């Protein structure tokens, strides 16, 4: 299956063609589209791990941001397991496997945002293992006052920009950053609109399908990803074969870092659930609204992080009540229950879960929980659990 | 970090003879018992307390306001040494906490739900302030979110930047100092009803530095052969007052003077460490250990080493509350800056290349036979990357590495036979290397 960007035109593709191409791109761990982009532009490409990095800044400097989301269930882990004990999540072992088998050679470096101790330590492993690449731990602030976390975060971003310049990137210019912010505002708006469409007509936007498109977007230049999102939206709205079914509406919570295998998302939908909100690929929705570039676009980027970010389990929540946002998400999405779906050994997700459970139980919202690894291959138990949960909602809920 | 009662270590699994104790251990036990008793009386005496963590804690600052620190990790490990962590963890898991996550957190949650009775059997006071010193451990953040739900008190987050590039930059330092000025001090003033007294803080920091000098002398005594100390099992006692509630106090200064004198006397006499079973026999192996100890079977764990003649001459765990042996001292001339540097300099806030450098240096400086990693399930801050550390250190030093697994305070993850077997194999491997055989 070709993943070449040269031979694919999203504007003229049919839905099956678009899905075939995005499926290929999203599963191309050798990053063929990135290699092609580099050959075409001569620019740098920076990989990044979940959950949040400021892609706008990279883009403004002519750097291609490339999400590295692990090897899923496609990748056989040969060397990665030798780096991690059995009680550490699966994601870093597939990331290091990809690094060691040469899949990430197209990248000029990697960004490791502050997500958890495992990702943090992986940043140091990368320094030891890939000495010629830029390996940067991105210490996102956990204080949200402009003169504290804001000043610090701005300094981190300026330092990152300096390091990219030292590797050959263009200097960071406010005008270019303002333009990049607008492009990413547009991309995020398209994703928000897709999520809104899924909330109102989940049968039109199957999660397993949308996920493949979004995942492909995260290795493409933003100019191309927005074209893809527009095309996908047009094609699914035109597809009149999609009909509503009697499914339970659920929020899928906890899958913000290590990604579930695609088969699991399909299984959940087939078991009788419409996923009407989720934590998958959170980078699209980390900043809730548009970023205002204003006269100081870097300040705009910083301010959005401080004041308009979601209440992710990887952030310190100093305001409001823990779990309140989960209740709000359930209400806004019209969900009838929550599926807590965290990767095994994921500290942020699993430590957060009891607090979220307390909040939703107080609100009378049903829930169930299970765990997965990115390479989970057997879904029967999950199917039965999710199916029973969906049935119980349909049989016993007040609605 | 600080077992208050050496006779208790050994947890639940065996009935042991009373442990041998140094005078310093007795002194420390008294200090801790008094502290816990003072905490238990706080509600009646009106003393206020601050819950905070060991790595990067601001003990001098907290105590300069006459506030009492409470350290949840210490409560958890003390519970483990007294055999109660199993029930606490079990309760937390029944309440919905995953079996996958940190057992310190679950032991603390369980203890809280069972009345918050501390290790000395007296109830701990509720916090008047939750001071989240967020150094080197992501779980701390979630832990205090959990506690925040339990208590009606103010919370302050002190975000300590990680040394991702192996250095403390001016902007990192300024960020921490600004947080201390703008958030931490006002919160402490409000809770205590007292104004910030920088002169008093300087006096405490000067006392800290004095005690730190003595601690380093104690730790570095292990360069001698035979080592007069065990820097891991014994080391957790030595760091106790320093890492917890006593830094900056006269009591800590006195303790470290006495400890140093005791160790120097042993060194002068050519004696080895005192273990719970008595004076250590012939020193056969000199080991550097990375990772925290297991607390539920502490005494058995130590015995597995001492019976083989293995002495731990340096350990990374005894640096989670400060890497003093690499030169850091609290500096009374720059009170807030030095607190910031302290927060950022603790072991788990160091990146992996720095950890590898540090361990490799220990191996050389302490003439160690090799590196042993005790990888604990609960602590990704330590555990993630340890297998790579092992390989890197082996490659750099040419000394063999060993790897065992256990947990901090969950007895279900301590497999005595398995660990003993691995340790024996490891020591045999060292012997074989010494005799020129293939490893």
Q: Could you give a short account of the major beta sheet of chain B?
A: 4 strands, parallel
CATH fold-level name of one domain in chain A: Rossmann fold
Helix and strand pattern of chain B: HHEHEHHHEHEHHHHHEEEHEHHEHHEH
Content-based structural category of chain A: alpha/beta
Secondary-structure content class of chain B: alpha/beta
Distance between the terminal alpha carbons of chain A, to the nearest Å?
Answer: 45 Å
Mind sketching the topology for me?
The complex is a heterodimer of chains A (399) and B (439).
Chain A: H1 15-26, H2 32-41, E1 45-48, H3 55-60, E2 64-67, H4 91-100, E3 109-113, H5 117-129, E4 134-138, H6 146-166, H7 174-200, H8 207-217, H9 222-238, E5 248-253, H10 262-270, E6 273-278, H11 297-307, H12 324-333, E7 337-343, H13 347-362, E8 367-372, H14 380-396
Parallel strand pairs in A: 1-2, 1-3, 3-4, 5-6, 5-7, 7-8
Helix pairs in contact in A: 1-8, 6-11, 7-9, 8-9, 8-10, 10-14
Chain B: H1 23-40, H2 42-45, E1 49-51, H3 59-64, E2 68-70, H4 72-81, H5 85-94, H6 103-113, E3 129-134, H7 138-150, E4 155-159, H8 170-192, H9 198-220, H10 235-238, H11 240-243, H12 250-268, E5 274-275, E6 278-279, E7 285-290, H13 298-306, E8 310-315, H14 335-345, H15 352-365, E9 370-376, H16 380-383, H17 386-397, E10 401-406, H18 416-434
Parallel strand pairs in B: 1-2, 1-3, 3-4, 7-8, 7-9, 9-10
Antiparallel strand pairs in B: 5-6
Helix pairs in contact in B: 1-12, 4-6, 5-6, 8-14, 9-12, 15-17
């Amino acid at each position: 299956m070709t993943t070449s960007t040269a031979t694919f035109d999203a504007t003229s593709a049919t839905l099956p063609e678009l899905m075939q191409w995005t499926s290929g791109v999203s599963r191309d761990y050798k990053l063929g589209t990135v290699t092609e982009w580099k050959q075409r532009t001569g620019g740098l490409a920076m990989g990044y791990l979940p959950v949040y990095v400021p892609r706008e800044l990279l883009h403004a400097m002519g750097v291609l941001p490339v999400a590295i989301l692990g090897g899923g269930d496609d990748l056989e882990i040969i060397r990665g397991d030798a780096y991690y004990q059995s009680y550490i999540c699966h994601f870093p072992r597939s990331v290091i496997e990809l690094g060691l088998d040469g899949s990430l050679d197209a990248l000029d470096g990697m960004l490791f945002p502050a997500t958890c101790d495992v990702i943090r330590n992986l940043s140091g492993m990368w320094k030891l293992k890939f000495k010629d690449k830029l390996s940067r731990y991105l210490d996102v602030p956990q204080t949200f006052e402009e003169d504290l976390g804001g000043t610090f975060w701005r300094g981190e971003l300026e330092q990152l920009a300096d390091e990219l310049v030292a590797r050959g990137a263009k200097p960071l210019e406010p005008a270019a950053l303002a333009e990049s912010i607008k492009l990413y505002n547009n991309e995020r708006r398209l994703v928000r609109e897709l999520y809104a469409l899924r909330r109102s007509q989940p049968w039109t936007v199957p999660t397993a399908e949308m996920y493949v498109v979004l995942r492909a977007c995260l290795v493409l230049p933003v100019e191309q990803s927005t074209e893809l999102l527009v095309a996908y939206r047009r094609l699914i709205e035109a597809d009149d074969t999609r009909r509503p079914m009697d499914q339970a509406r659920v929020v899928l919570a906890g899958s913000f870092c290590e990604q579930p295998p695609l088969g699991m998302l399909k299984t959940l939908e087939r078991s009788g659930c419409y996923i009407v909100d989720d934590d998958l690929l959170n980078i699209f929705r980390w900043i809730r609204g548009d970023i205002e570039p204003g006269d100081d676009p870097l300040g705009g980027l910083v301010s959005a992080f401080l004041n308009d970010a979601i209440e992710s389990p990887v952030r310190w929540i100093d305001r409001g009540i823990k779990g309140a946002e989960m209740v709000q998400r359930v209400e806004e999405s019209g969900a009838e229950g929550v599926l807590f779906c965290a990767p095994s050994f994921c500290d942020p997700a699993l430590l957060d879960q009891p607090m979220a459970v307390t909040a939703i139980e107080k609100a009378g919202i049903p829930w169930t929980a299970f765990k997965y690894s990115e390479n989970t291959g057997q879904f029967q138990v999950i199917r039965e659990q999710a199916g029973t949960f969906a049935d119980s909602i349909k049989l016993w809920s007040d609605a | 970090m600080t077992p208050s009662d050496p006779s208790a270590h050994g947890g639940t699994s065996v009935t042991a003879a009373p442990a041998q104790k140094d005078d310093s251990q007795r002194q420390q036990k008294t200090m801790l018992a008094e502290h816990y008793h003072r905490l238990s009386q706080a509600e009646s005496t009106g003393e206020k307390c601050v819950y905070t963590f060991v790595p990067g804690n601001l003990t001098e600052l907290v105590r300069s306001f006459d506030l009492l620190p409470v350290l949840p990790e210490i409560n958890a490990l003390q519970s483990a040494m007294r055999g109660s962590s199993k029930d606490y963890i079990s309760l937390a898991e029944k309440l919905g906490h995953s079996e996958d996550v940190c057992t310190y957190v679950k032991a603390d949650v369980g203890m809280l739900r069972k009345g918050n009775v501390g290790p000395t059997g007296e109830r701990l006071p509720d916090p008047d302030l939750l001071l989240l010193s967020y150094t080197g451990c992501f779980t701390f953040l979630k832990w205090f979110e959990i506690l925040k739900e339990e208590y009606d008190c103010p919370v302050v987050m002190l975000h300590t930047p990680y040394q991702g590039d192996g250095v403390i930059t001016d902007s990192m330092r300024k960020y921490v100092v600004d947080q201390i000025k703008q958030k931490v001090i006002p919160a402490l003033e409000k809770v205590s009803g007292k104004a910030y007294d920088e002169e008093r803080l300087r006096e405490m920091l000067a006392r800290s530095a004095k005690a730190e000098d003595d601690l380093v002398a104690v730790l570095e005594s292990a360069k001698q052969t035979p080592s007069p100390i065990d820097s891991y099992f014994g080391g957790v006692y030595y760091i106790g007052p320093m890492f917890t509630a006593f830094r900056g106090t006269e009591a800590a200064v006195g303790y470290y003077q006495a400890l140093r004198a005791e160790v120097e006397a042993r060194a002068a006499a050519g004696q080895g460490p005192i273990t719970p079973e008595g004076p250590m026999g012939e020193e056969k192996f000199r080991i550097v250990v990375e990772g925290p100890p297991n607390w539920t079977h502490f005494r058995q764990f130590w015995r597995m080493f001492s019976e083989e003649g293995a002495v731990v001459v340096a350990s990374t765990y005894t640096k989670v509350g400060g890497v003093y042996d690499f030169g850091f001292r609290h500096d009374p001339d720059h009170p807030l800056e030095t607190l910031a540097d302290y927060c950022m300099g603790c072991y788990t806030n160091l990146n992996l290349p720095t950890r590898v450098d540090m361990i490799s240096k220990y191996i050389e400086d302490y003439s160690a036979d090799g590196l042993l990693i005790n990888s604990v399930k609960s602590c990704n801050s330590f555990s993630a990357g340890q297998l790579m550390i092992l390989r890197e250190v082996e490659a750099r030093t040419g000394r063999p590495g060993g790897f065992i697994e256990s947990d901090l305070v969950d007895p279900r993850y301590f497999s005595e036979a398995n660990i003993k077997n691995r340790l024996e194999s490891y020591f045999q491997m060292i012997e074989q290397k010494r005799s020129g055989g293939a490893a």
